[in-house]
Design a protein that fits this description.
Layout (H helix, E strand, L loop, with lengths): L4 E3 L12 E6 L2 E3 L5 E3 L5 E6 L4 E8 L6 E10 L2 E6 L3 E4 L2 E2 L7 E2 L2 E6 L2 E8 L2 E7 L3 E6 L41 H11 L15 H11 L10 H14 L8 H5 L17 E5 L5 E5 L1 H4 L11 E5 L2 E7 H6 L7 E2 L8 E3 L4 E7 L7 E6 L6 E11 L13 E8 L8 E4 L3 E7 L4 E9 L14 E2 L3 E9 L6 E12 L5 E6 L2 E2 L7 E4 L5 E7 L9 E12 L28 E8 L1
Helix pairs in contact: 1-2, 2-3
Length: 583
């Protein structure tokens, strides 16, 4: 747990004329009077506030959950707000501002200096300068006379300066200690931080004690990565001296072994859940903030979130987790190598997706609940790296299997409408010219004919009657040999009647009359093909049987033999009649 540390140290206060500078680096604030304050959490705090203007700092975690560091700065004037963010960004109302084209935002003048973005505004005719490079913040003010500002830079307490409206949710919740920096490293860092008390920094009279302490306290908890180093704190001291009129030797970096760190992550834009830091290859990358990433690192899924939709699926990966391991999302693809990820430049998430037009070699399965007839669609695929072409590779192997299930939602019951309420067709044989009528009903007594306007629901019982006219009813019987439903689009089929008998695979089919008289009757419960076929054709094959020459024209569906096998059919070409419905 980070403890609140407010140090009131006796230090030599350096004043150049009447100007003073407040410095914020990491979570350390060295105020206008050179006192040191440590911010204890990931909240927002007021640094400088007057009746008309204010400067606030927002602190967040980066690589470690228990170390908060300065993230961005918010300047408010009577005209509105402007934000100075990481990567030397200027933001207004959530949008980046190009200060080369718009140098003034809400009365704040903006310029790009060698040490950061400089924002200038006035408070009661006093010029206030704010400079921020994504790591270190400087606030320079003159003697403001009767105007007495408040905030951490002026000596106000931490407890009275927290700004809830700018703070992230649960910003004050304590995090477990990480102990990232070994004790021997801390000892080495301490020695290097203390170099600030010697040449070439001796020419500046500003007290060095708290800059040294801020350096040690930060780098004994946070590793020298992501732009934070001993040089960062030494640079802050040099810049403060120069802002107040004292020039440090231009060779100071060489003298203490520092490289140019001011430009680290300059112009690098990361999402709100990310920060710009060093990846595994020590390259500038947008990495995940530790609290965001902690629950996602356990299963090496790279934060994969899978969603299923109608005829499609997608997997979203956090690109910051990929960059953390030095993995380029361009090296990844689905099972089909041409199905690559798409980067959202706003969220920095990578999406892999496919649909029914190109499944990218996904396994797609459909199952139907026999009770509810509900359909469940399951998608299975994987994100993987391309196979190496040589003997070595420097790309980390990735294989992320993902799957999801989708149940199409029916906001209202699925309904069907028949395309023709009654179908009539005439057939000719050697002996007969006869007509068959095919009709559908919604009740057993066959008094409610299914019209083209009738809506039929799933599992609703439908009675189908097929009747022949124009034949001798005393010597001819109509036999329904088979009835088969076909999805017109996909050619999928489902049998209702086969060989004159009910399809044993469909328990809803009931034959009431077949081969006894010139009409046949059966019923079944309405169904749909998986995928919701737009058009279904019900086709029946009919035969005429001579009752004079055959003992029985009725199929024997109990023994699964046809007693009518000895029956003599009077038509050599069976009659085929069909009816269609849509949904």
């Amino acid at each position: 747990m980070l403890l609140l540390l407010l140090l009131s140290l006796t230090a030599t206060t350096y004043v150049s004329g009447s100007e003073e500078v407040c410095t914020v680096t990491g979570s350390q604030i060295i105020n206008f009077k050179q006192g040191l304050v440590v911010v204890p959490d990931r909240c927002a705090y007021s640094l400088f506030a007057s009746e008309t203007s204010s400067v606030s700092a927002v602190f967040q975690d980066r690589r470690l959950v228990d170390v908060s560091l300065l993230d961005h700065v918010v300047i408010k004037t009577s005209a509105g707000a402007v934000q100075l963010g990481p990567g030397w960004r200027v933001i207004k109302d959530g949008n980046d501002v190009d200060i080369s084209k718009t140098p003034t935002v809400n009365t704040v003048e903006l310029t790009k200096e060698t040490i950061g973005i400089k924002a200038t505004f006035t408070v009661s005719a006093n010029t206030i300068e704010v400079i921020f490079d994504g790591f270190t913040l400087y606030i320079k003010k003159p003697d403001m006379g009767s105007v007495v500002p408040s905030g951490l830079c002026t000596g106000s307490s931490v407890s009275t300066t927290k700004i809830s409206s700018l703070s992230i949710e649960n910003c004050a919740v304590a995090q477990s200690k990480t102990n990232e920096v070994p004790s021997d490293t801390c000892t080495t860092v301490t020695t290097r931080c203390e170099k600030l008390s010697s040449n070439p920094f001796g020419s500046c009279a500003i007290a060095k004690t708290n800059y040294i302490k801020a350096c040690k306290d930060t780098l004994c908890k946070y590793p020298e990565k992501d732009g934070f180093s001993v040089c960062r704190f030494q640079e802050a001291y040099v810049n403060v001296c120069q802002l107040l009129g004292t020039t440090i030797s231009a060779t100071w970096r060489t003298d203490v072994g520092c490289t140019d760190s001011t430009t680290f992550c300059q112009d690098k834009t990361c999402a709100h859940h990310e920060f710009c830091g060093d990846n595994i290859s020590d390259e500038e990358s947008c990495l995940c903030r530790s609290i965001f990433a902690s629950p996602l690192r356990t299963d090496n899924s790279f934060g994969g979130v899978t969603t299923c939709e109608d005829k499609s699926s997608k997997l979203i990966l956090a690109n910051c987790l990929l960059e953390e391991k030095g993995i380029d999302y361009n090296d990844l693809h689905l099972k089909k190598a041409t199905c690559t990820g798409q980067l959202d430049t706003t969220t920095n998430n990578v999406t892999f997706s496919f649909d029914n037009t190109d499944t990218c070699e996904a396994i797609v399965t459909e199952t139907v609940d026999t009770n509810t007839q509900g359909v469940t669609i399951k998608y299975e695929n994987s994100v993987e790296t391309s196979a190496p072409t040589g003997d070595i590779t420097r790309v980390d192997s990735v294989n992320i299997d993902f799957s999801c299930q989708y149940t199409p939602k029916n906001p209202s019951p699925t309904t069907f409408t028949i395309m023709d309420s009654t179908v009539t067709k005439t057939f000719s044989t050697v002996s007969w010219t006869y007509t068959v009528t095919m009709s559908a009903y919604t009740n057993a007594k066959r008094t409610k004919l299914v019209e083209t306007s009738t809506e039929i629901q799933l599992k609703q019982t439908i009675w189908m009657e097929l009747k022949a006219t124009g034949v001798d009813e005393t010597s001819i019987a109509l036999v329904i040999h088979s009835c088969q439903a076909t999805d017109v689009d996909s050619a999928k089929t489902h049998n209702l009647i086969t060989n004159g008998c009910e399809n044993p695979a469909d328990s809803t089919v009931k034959i009431e009359t077949n081969g006894k008289g010139v009409s046949g009757l059966f019923n079944f419960k309405m169904f749909q093909f998986i995928g919701k076929a737009k058009s279904v054709k019900l086709e029946c094959i009919l035969k005429l049987c001579s009752t004079l020459d055959s003992k029985n024209c009725q199929p024997d569906c109990i023994s699964r033999r046809r007693r009518s096998a000895k029956a003599r059919y009077v038509d050599t070409d069976p009659a085929v009649i069909s009816m269609a419905w849509t949904n």
